[in-house]
Input
Amino acid sequence: METKEGGRTHSDKKTRVSPYLDSDTYAKLNRLARACDTSPPKLLEFMAEYLLNLPDFVRWVQDVHNVSNNDVFRIIPVIKDGKIQY
Output
């Protein structure tokens, strides 16, 4: 999404999302983030960007949540110009 701010165009506008994690999940995230020399929020951002661009993940998560193939809200990922779109 591109925005115009002070005469400059920005395409990297971020939206804050704060998930609540159980202590086991947070400990794993924190340990992996330390191993990768990054912060837990940056690692979560990386993971979200990566996973949301994998068609198999998008289909799998909908299957786990019982979104039927006929559901009007079911997302059908399409690869166009090398990028996933839905």
Remarks:
- The radius of gyration is 17 Å.
- The mean pLDDT is 90.
- The chain has three helices and four strands.
- The longest strand covers residues 3-5.
